[in-house]
Amino acid sequence: MNFFFHPLSGGTYLVSARASGYNYLESVPFVFLGSLIWEYFGETTLPSYNDIINTTASGALFGEILYRLTSVILDERTTGAERFFREFGAFILSPGRTFSRLLQGKLTRVTPKEVYQKEPLNITLTAGAHWFNKGATFGTGSASAMFNIHLDYGDPFEIRPRKPFDLFKVRIDLSYGKNVGNKYLDNAIGYGLLFGKTIHSGDWDMLIGAFQHYNFWDSRIFEIGVLGFGGGIIAKWRLSENSNFQGEVHLGLVPLAASNSPDIDIMEAGIHGRNYDYSGGAEFKLEGTLNLAKIGQVTANYYLYGLHTYIGPAGNKVLGIFKPRIAVNLSANLSLGFEYLYYHKHNFLRYFPDVQSSNSEQKLYLMLYF
């Protein structure tokens, strides 16, 4: 609720402001004001700082991503059935924008040229199975179904003036099965560019910029939510005409995060049972992909979070996720993929015993590219 649905609701405020003609920076205060009004007049409990922070900051990220995705779908040059399905698709992603368009008379407006900014959008759909292991022992779990959507919006290597979120990446994993419990949203992670500059030098292309990050992991074996801001580099090295290596490195500050612990039982709204703390600190992300012509890809990602507790058992913690993957091309738009995920957690608590744990899972799936 605090790290997903609050940001999602905050996104509706930003989309409404964007649909009314405000740019991204002008729209962010509407998210803060909407969150503030809800905290003081929409809830019966005391206002909470974490909700205002999450709803405003992550809500701005959610909202701008939804606004830009609906802008890709919408085309006011179209009429008839195509226009209906475009408007309906935008409604599914953002009902708030459709409501704003209805009030402004844009649902049926026809224009002679494109009126919305559109960037290249690559979509990857994934379906297959994953296995939660017993601890970190490979191949010891039973299978559950998994589905994934991965969105790459914008070209990081195009020379151009940059605007907030004209480049973003989003990955959402869904799970289903008896071993999943009610945690159907396995993880949702991504980032958006706030500002930056692209540089070309020989066989190297590079984007240097500032990014906002969103990290939400909520599986049966690993739970953490992180809001981060920091600098990053996205680079591509051309090895041959059809092969390249693309890497990313990000280092940022974490104003707000949360992770679960068996030592936490916090009363919230008069009810015991919140099993996660609130913390902050720093994050480090390293991603690398080797694209081998028509053969496939080899990828390795590592996410590391160092956090200090604000609310909860006093202490520090280090959490990390290592995720190697290999994908073999079956056709031009279809690949067979396998990935392994290793999670580690080290809690160094002042008044409780230190906790160290590790878990793992593996996934096997088909990937369809658009």
Explain what this protein looks like in three dimensions.
The chain has helices at 5-19, 24-42, 49-73, 80-93, 95-104; strands at 121-132, 143-153, 168-176, 185-201, 204-218, 223-238, 244-259, 266-268, 271-274, 278-292, 296-311, 315-329, 334-349, 355-369. A twelve-stranded antiparallel β-barrel has the order 1-2-3-4-5-6-7-10-11-12-13-14. The longest helix is centred in the N-terminal third of the chain and has 25 residues, at 49-73. A hairpin with a 5-residue loop joins strand 6 (223-238) and strand 7. The protein is globular and about 65 Å long. It has two domains: 5-104, no CATH class; 121-369, Porin (Beta Barrel), CATH 2.40.160. The protein is 22% helix and 49% strand. The protein starts with a helix and ends with a strand. With 370 residues, it is an alpha+beta fold. The chain is built from five helices and 14 strands.
Brief characterization of the structure:
This protein is α+β, with helices and mostly antiparallel strands and 370 residues long. The chain has helices at 5-19, 24-42, 49-73, 80-93, 95-104, and strands at 121-132, 143-153, 168-176, 185-201, 204-218, 223-238, 244-259, 266-268, 271-274, 278-292, 296-311, 315-329, 334-349, 355-369. The strands form two sheets. The chain has a twelve-stranded antiparallel β-barrel. Strands 8-9 form a two-stranded antiparallel sheet.
